[in-house]
Request: fold
Amino acid sequence: MITIKEVAHHAGVSMSTVSYVLSGKRSISEETKRRVEQSIVALGYHPNAGARALASNRSRVVGLVVPLHSDQNLPIIMRFVSSIVARARDHDYDVLLLTKEAGPGEAHRVIARSMADAIVVMDVESADPRVPELRAVDAPVVLLGVPDDHEGLSCLDLDFTAAGRQLAGHLADRGHRSIALIGSPPPVYERGTSFAARLLAGFQGETAKRGVLTSVHSCAAGYDAVSGCLDDVLHPDRGTTGLVVHNEAVLGPLLLELRRRSLDVPGDLSVITLCPDDVAATLPVPLTSIAVPAEELGAIAVEMVMARLGRELAPEVRLLQPLLTDRGSTAVR
Amino acid sequence: MITIKEVAHHAGVSMSTVSYVLSGKRSISEETKRRVEQSIVALGYHPNAGARALASNRSRVVGLVVPLHSDQNLPIIMRFVSSIVARARDHDYDVLLLTKEAGPGEAHRVIARSMADAIVVMDVESADPRVPELRAVDAPVVLLGVPDDHEGLSCLDLDFTAAGRQLAGHLADRGHRSIALIGSPPPVYERGTSFAARLLAGFQGETAKRGVLTSVHSCAAGYDAVSGCLDDVLHPDRGTTGLVVHNEAVLGPLLLELRRRSLDVPGDLSVITLCPDDVAATLPVPLTSIAVPAEELGAIAVEMVMARLGRELAPEVRLLQPLLTDRGSTAVR
DNA sequence: AACCACGTTCGAAGCGCTTCGATTCAATTC
DNA sequence: GAATTGAATCGAAGCGCTTCGAACGTGGTT
Reply:
């Protein structure tokens, strides 16, 4: 193993000089810097992370708590993870993988052992049992998702309430007087997944304000569940003309089933959804949708963490405003 | 921060004694052990990972290279990751997340910096460009997937050749004389994903031996692609009576489309596949299938890594034998 | 009684790095 | 020309842990 000592010797300088070349924390002459950098390359030097962490009290690692067992929206989770890893690497940070299933003690463990400098927690729920323990973690913590009791914690999410309003408003603007919301399966609501409840609240607030009739349907994945749900949604008594879908897994089957029933989108039924842009765009019928900006959320999460690594910073809740893309799947009544 | 020194003082012993209590590398009297353990709990001591790594030259971390951008079989990838993290934690190891996309240099970097003691690489392809660099990594490396040139590397995978044989054989045994294989989309083959090619080889070997007619179809995801593919598969000239599907993403649409065409499984068409057991079991029609034993593969990968951490061990290629579960989706002709 | 062996424990030397004065030397200032 | 500054560099003290050799009883051998 090549150590900083050998680099120093090779370059004819002291260890501290090499260290300062590497960190840039003190000014070093161009000439010396060049020589040191050459030696580093020549010897193939890589600083030892443990020694560095020990001496500097910084691990340059963030712990990421991921819900690996979640079967729901895996693609979105992956996008988050991917974006967080990439942005962390931009800051020369690595990512330690912690699983939600392994329990909240994991976050505390890696911080207490100085394995990580900060924690990012994905998939935070309304009444998330991990919240108290996370609050006690002695390091910056950023939650993706906003728990009910988020005092003292930094959270980040899409503004689902605004999204619910916007989806409802978009249809109401186009003259729809009876709109159905197809949401996640019952377990998601029971689990208190905050985003589902918040979107619903926004949706109902807006429709109430506009005097639009609504029906709300919790729909499981699977073709039969979707078909059954559609029977309910399209019951003639309702007069449903617009559909808000907040459940990525049913989009494909839903559109298929509509086609099977010879219902045209948007001719017979307007459909609007919330899902990643590329999903919305590659469905059998491209759907007007609000994007889930996973990459952006991941990037902001990392920014929030990095900002809190240096100085003490007040906790904040950041809600990204939803962005709706019109793909022509809604018609004017 | 509580250090080992404070624990030692609190327990009235030396630092080294505390260390030996923790590591168990020397015998310690029950009495002392008890006192030390009490002090550890009382003070809330957590060993500093950096110091530990520096002194012991062991990080207790494995680097895991994950294809985060892969859109194919995300659920399987997650299962692997999940199982690897869990099994690594069983050994008191943590997992550092490296992305395939960030390039092969990442594995070398984390090893050279002593951030990890070993590397596990997922989603290895036939002519994987990362292989040469992985071979040069100065630490145990285990590949999930078998590249063509795997000399000197330890690899682990399902025996896809045997799986192909077994799937074909299962249908041939039941009297099918014309079998179609629906595989992954063309890009997967072009990329040289070894498992696709190996399954195909096994399939063709077996069918040739049995004198069974075959047709091979590369099918993209999406309902229209599936429908088009079925038109081809079911062309009357072929007389296809059995279907081997090696493409998890098309299973749902395929079964739907068969239903739409009023074709009964297995009455009109026998279908058999290779996918995770729970996927096969929860489809509209449960399918006889060979399981992708993700949990088991992950566990074995971790075992292989751990075995190689202590002593020098020869590289080996381990191929798990496929296990077929009959769910009644194939009929006798 | 001197010896050895063994189980337990201690002390101290690092592991490779960062960082804080201290030092040197040349350029500026009065 | 002495004093002051500031840039560039060095030396050494840790960071918190593991681990090796030594030391210390205690009990059994000879």
Remarks:
- Chain B has a mean pLDDT of 92.
- Residues 4-47 of chain B form a domain with the 434 Repressor (Amino-terminal Domain) fold (CATH 1.10.260.40).
- The first strand of chain B starts at residue 61 and ends at 66.
- Chain B touches chain A through 48 residues (CB under 8 Å).
